[in-house]
Design goal:
By secondary structure, this protein is an alpha+beta fold. Helices cover 22% and strands 20% of the residues. The chain starts with 5 loop residues before the first strand and ends in a 7-residue tail after the last helix.
């Protein structure tokens, strides 16, 4: 089966032949799961695990945190965070 192919499949057929369809999903195929011929879900392969660690610091220098960020919040906004205030 080609990667990116989508097959419509009724729930009964999916339950009856689940292993067969899971093999096809592992090969890159997506399954549109239907109830009474109405699509209710899509089952598709998950992306593989990363082979390299995520890069750190890609946005370095792209923005600056303003000094106001570290100032206390006004009382009217703090009241929303404090129970029974």
């Amino acid at each position: 089966m080609a990667t990116g192919t989508k097959t419509k499949l009724n729930v009964h057929e999916a339950k009856t032949n689940l292993s067969k369809y899971l093999d096809r999903i592992e090969q890159g195929e997506s399954i549109l799961l239907c109830r009474r011929n109405k699509v209710i879900a899509e089952i598709k392969p998950v992306q593989g695990e990363r082979l390299e660690p995520r890069p750190i610091g890609l946005a370095k220098g792209a923005f600056a945190v303003p000094a106001e960020f570290f100032e206390p919040l006004p009382d009217d906004i703090l009241a929303h965070f404090i129970k029974n205030a």
